[in-house]
Amino acid sequence: MADMQMDADTPVFAIAVAAELAGMHPQTLRQYDRIGLVVPGRTSGGSRRYSTRNIEQLREVAQLSSEGMSLPAIARLLDLEDENRMLRRRVAELDAALRAERENRPGVRVFAAGSAGVVPMPGGRRIRRSTDLVLWHPGGIRG
Q1: CA distances (Å), 93 to each of 12, 48, 102, in order?
Q2: Which of 28, 46, 99, 143 is the most buried (most CB within 10 A)?
Q3: Percent of the chain surpassing pLDDT 90
Q4: What residues are paired with 50 via a beta bridge?
Q5: CA nearest 18: which of 62, 51, 66, 61?
């Protein structure tokens, strides 16, 4: 059997198990799926499969609903949480890429624009101010 990578989004629970874990009736889960509130994965045969994140969402829907929040408002909140999760993942990717770039180019501190276009300036190299223009210097220009 091939190694399977499991995470919070891996659909594994059948509807009966998901309903029990969420403390809901299976018909409620079907209704939430129909209206797009909590949408599970599907098997090749079309059966619903819920992930641990889906179970968390179902519990959150139940809590918010019991506090009087409408289903459309809950749907919007869940959408915003998904977007926030995606953006945090993207920020982490960009941070890692920036860190890697800085490690690969430790001497590059200044960028200058001249006849050759925008070019990185290695640390310690002076800029010919009569022909080049400093565009950016992290931490300020040192004299």
Answers
A1: 27, 31, 14
A2: 28
A3: 60
A4: 13
A5: 51
What's phi and psi for 86, nearest 5 deg?
-65, -45
* Residue 33, domain CATH: 1.10.1660.10
pLDDT confidence tier of residue 99, bands split at 50, 70 and 90: confident
Is 91 inside any structural domain? Answer: no
Query: What type of residue is 123?
Result: G
Q: Is the pLDDT of residue 1 over 50?
A: no
Query: What does the pLDDT average to over 46-65?
Result: 95
Owning domain of residue 115: 105-136
Do the domain assignments include residue 129? yes
Better-scored residue on pLDDT, 65 or 137: 65
Q: Which two tokens stand for residue 92?
A: 């982490």
The answer to whether residue 6 sits within a structural domain is: no
Q: Would you list the DSSP string of 73-138? A: HHHHHHHHHHHHHHHHHHHHHHHHHHHHHHHH-TTEEEEEEETTEEEEEETTPPP-TTT-EEEE-T
Give dist(CA 24, CA 2) in Å, integer: 33
